[in-house]
Methyltransferase domain-containing protein (Actinomadura darangshiensis), 296 residues
Amino acid sequence: MGTTVDDQRGDERGGYVHGYSRREADRLGDQADALAALLHDGTAYPEGSRVLEVGCGVGAQTVHLVARSPGAHLTAVDVSAASLDQARARVAASRPGADVRWREADLHDLPFSDAAFDHLFVCFVLEHLPDPRAALAGLRRVLRPGGTLTVVEGDHGSAFFHPDSARARAAIAHQVALQAAAGGDALIGRRLRPLLTAAGYRRVTAGPRTVYADGDRPGLARAFTLGTFAAMVESVRGDAVAAGLTTPADFDRGIADLRRTAAADGTFHYTFFKAVAVNPPVSRRAGAGRGGPGRG
Ligand SMILES: C[S@@+](CC[C@H](N)C(=O)[O-])C[C@H]1O[C@@H](n2cnc3c(N)ncnc32)[C@H](O)[C@@H]1O
């Protein structure tokens, strides 16, 4: 789950819509920690297996991958050198001696040989890509036949809450529209299964992972409703106003209404989707056009 962060333009933003500020890094870390049990449940890789985390960002998920698969050989890539530096520091601080190799690379052009990995893990990355199906199909090159791909994405259409608020819904819709205008899809969670199937994966299993916060879960309301979701929507304020989608006053009222749902008598619902799929063996005919020379 990401954000268009309007206060980050001065940073190493490149083509990535979210920016790379310290605030965004903290948000991603808080999000990953709050959701670790929900999102990482069922993901543990065998000792000695070769695992690639694609788009590791600041290492927010990497620390959880390492914790759950201490014997795996993990490689983590991202296009942002600054994020990789933060990821390195985060993992060194929380898991000293962890077996992680870091590489600055674009997932569309990975510097690894064919079938270099047994498992791939991709979290909150596809939502930013203009052609996620092509990206998923391309990742198959570095995944050995029979190896697995695990994908986690959110879906902002799954956000509903009490008290309901048209202004809060409008603020969320602005975030969805801005992400779409940047070539991404904040509603991608519901598409994981068809995307993976279309990209050539087999034995695809996809399912919802729901966050529900209410007065009995004040910690979750703080960490997720306020610290993750409302913070993410709030961060598009400048872009939404600049695009003429809203006024500062209307947007701020929407955010206030969204934050209101974290009170003791409020409720908040959001669903992530997690999918696991297998890279099928390359048939002789299909293999004629796939792959290319190995690298790295
Ligand atoms: C929202 S962050 C998620 C980071 C991390 N997976 C997490 O869950 O905290 C998306 C990350 O994808 C990276 N990214 C975007 N496009 C990429 C590409 N073409 N190749 C590699 N990384 C990419 C960004 O640099 C960013 O770090």
